Amino acid sequence: MGKTAEQMAPIEQKKMCCAEDGEDTSTHMTDELQRNLMNRMNRIEGQVKGVKRMIDRNVYCDDILTQVSAVQSALHSVSRLLLESHINTCVMDRLEIKDPEIVAEFMTTISKIMK
After folding, report:
1. Are residues 25 and 112 in contact, defined by beta-carbon separation less than 8 angstroms?
2. Which 3 state secondary structure label does DSSP give 12?
3. What values do phi and psi take at 2, rounded to 5?
4. Is 15 among the domain residues?
5. Which of 34, 57, 67, 70 is 20 to 30 A removed from 77 (C-alpha atoms)?
């Protein structure tokens, strides 16, 4: 179900970040948030490489599991930041124009991240 030009105008002016399937998407992510997320992802990448080294060196399983848990926690933190930003920008924008598809889309997103 497509949106009318009147419905799309407010979002297009704000650079829509939650486009329909097949459309180009952009984000309302601030430069600060993007830097924060990239820094976190770089640290997570380093942690994952550290876990791989631990496995390669045959480190005690309990120690490896502790590091895996730390990586998972860090990824959950990234997800929380992204979710908060998504709600405060994309979701709110689409609620303002009474886009009926946003609730189903958001529930699908929540279902995916709660697995």
Report:
1. no
2. helix
3. -80, 165
4. no
5. 57
Decide if 13 is inside a domain: no
- Domain of residue 68: give its range: 29-113
Dump pLDDT digits (tens) for 25-46. Answer: 566 789 999 999 999 999 999 9
Torsion on CA atoms 13, 20, 23, 39, rounded to nearest 10: 80
Other beta carbons less than 10 A from residue 43's beta carbon: 12
* Beta carbons of 54 and 64 less than 8 angstroms apart: yes
CA angle 42, 59, 79 (to 5 degrees): 30
Q: Rounding to the nearest 10 degrees, give the CA dihedral for residues 88, 9, 27, 106.
A: 50
Look-up of token digits 């997320």:
37
